[in-house]
């Protein structure tokens, strides 16, 4: 069982199964509609959902549209090349070149959209030189597949960026509480927990930055999907808390490093125990803030503990970072 968990990692099997069902439904429905319209083997119609749909919780609909545009561009490139008297190798080279150029224009999540090149190559590989009428058939097949794909992506298990952001924020909140608890324990007892946890804290801090960067993608997903428009009301507050988590983690990372580097004159001393108590208060206040509340008493206690501290420069370095966390709680909570 443990080996299975390690193999699966953090994969969302339910979401992957839903994506498979959506691809199957869209591909089958596209094929059926095209056969009803007179095309006996509408391969491209069934292929569009497979290449266009995405399991991305933020960009499922917008990515589908971008990939569909790539398919249309590729089909157009292939039709143009098939109408010329070119050798197969020349047609392939031009298809790759023109498709890649089109993909640069039709970028997909910041990367080149390879669907234009893939679709052009696919059509050239299946068609005989000069078979322009085959390419024309592929255009309306692609149009049918595109319409079905967008409808299925938007209406059946549509992406829920707000729910996804809440899940990620809750994970960050729990990780921050655990990391600060370990730092506080090291300050109080000198058990070396900060050094042991430093790599994890760095990773969690980078995760927090990535969540901030993903906010624009989440905003775009809400903009593209009319089913989720009602979530606009809760998005600004969620965005504010994610920014707060990233700011808190930036300072938590510095605190962890400073405590890991500190000697036993600080860790386990009376000054260290005072810093530990302040760290626990800040962790409590941060936890409440990240769920949308406010714990003014915990923040006040932390400020009072830091105000009476005195000691070596390394203690003051840690205290400065803790005060900065309190300032972020005050500013970004407002």
Helical residue percent band: over 70%
Count the beta strands.
Answer: 0
CATH superfamily of the largest domain: Phosphate transport system protein phou homolog 2, domain 2
Count of helix runs: 14
Radius of gyration of CA atoms, rounded to a whole number: 27 Å
Low-pLDDT stretches: 1-8
Question: Can you name the CATH architecture of the largest domain?
Answer: Up-down Bundle
CATH topology of the largest domain: Methane Monooxygenase Hydroxylase, Chain G, domain 1
The biggest sheet amounts to: none
Structural class call reads mainly alpha
Gap between N and C termini? 46 Å
Q: How would you spell out the order of helices and strands? A: HHHHHHHHHHHHHH
The CATH class name of the largest domain reads Mainly Alpha
Brief write-up:
This protein is mostly helical. The protein has helices at 2-8, 13-36, 43-52, 60-82, 88-105, 115-126, 132-155, 161-189, 193-213, 215-224, 235-261, 270-290, 296-307, 313-333. The protein contains 14 helices and no strands.
Give the topology, please.
Layout: H1 2-8, H2 13-36, H3 43-52, H4 60-82, H5 88-105, H6 115-126, H7 132-155, H8 161-189, H9 193-213, H10 215-224, H11 235-261, H12 270-290, H13 296-307, H14 313-333
Helix pairs in contact: 2-3, 2-7, 3-4, 3-7, 4-5, 4-6, 4-7, 5-6, 8-9, 8-11, 8-12, 9-11, 11-14, 12-13, 12-14, 13-14
Task: Describe the protein.
The protein is elongated, with a radius of gyration of 27 Å. The chain is mainly alpha-helical and 334 residues long. Helix 4 (60-82) runs antiparallel to helix 5 (88-105) and helix 9 (193-213) runs antiparallel to helix 11 (235-261). 44% of the residues are buried. Helices cover 78% and strands 0% of the residues. It has two domains: 2-155, no CATH class; 161-333, Methane Monooxygenase Hydroxylase, Chain G, domain 1.
């Amino acid at each position: 069982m443990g080996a299975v968990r390690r193999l699966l990692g953090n994969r969302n099997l339910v979401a992957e199964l839903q994506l498979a069902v959506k691809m199957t439904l869209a591909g089958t429905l596209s094929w059926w509609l095209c056969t009803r319209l007179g095309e006996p083997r509408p391969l491209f119609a069934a292929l569009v959902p497979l290449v266009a749909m995405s399991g991305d919780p933020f960009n499922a609909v917008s990515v589908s549209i971008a990939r569909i545009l790539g398919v249309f561009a590729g089909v157009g490139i292939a039709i143009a090349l098939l109408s010329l008297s070119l050798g197969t190798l020349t047609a392939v080279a031009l298809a790759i070149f023109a498709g890649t150029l089109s993909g640069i224009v039709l970028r997909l999540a910041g990367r080149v959209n390879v669907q234009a090149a893939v679709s052009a190559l696919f059509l050239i590989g299946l068609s005989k030189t000069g078979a322009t009428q085959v390419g024309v058939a592929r255009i309306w097949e692609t149009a049918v597949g595109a319409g079905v794909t967008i409808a299925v992506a938007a209406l059946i298990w549509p992406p829920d960026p707000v729910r996804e952001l809440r899940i990620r924020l809750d994970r960050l909140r729990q990780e921050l509480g655990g990391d600060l608890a370990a730092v506080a324990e090291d300050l109080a007892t000198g058990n070396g927990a900060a050094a042991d946890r430093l790599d994890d804290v760095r990773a969690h801090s980078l995760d927090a930055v990535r969540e901030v960067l993903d906010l624009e993608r989440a905003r775009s997903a809400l903009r593209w999907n009319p089913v989720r428009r009602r979530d606009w009301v809760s998005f600004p507050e969620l965005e504010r808390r994610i920014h707060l988590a990233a700011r808190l983690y930036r300072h938590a990372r510095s605190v962890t490093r400073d405590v890991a580097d500190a000697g036993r004159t600080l860790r386990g001393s009376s000054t260290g125990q005072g810093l530990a108590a302040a760290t626990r208060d800040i962790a409590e206040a941060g936890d409440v803030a990240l769920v949308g509340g406010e714990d003014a008493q915990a923040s006040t206690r932390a400020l009072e503990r830091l105000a009476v501290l005195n000691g070596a420069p390394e203690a003051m370095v840690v205290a400065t970072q803790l005060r900065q966390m309190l300032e972020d709680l005050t500013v970004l909570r407002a």
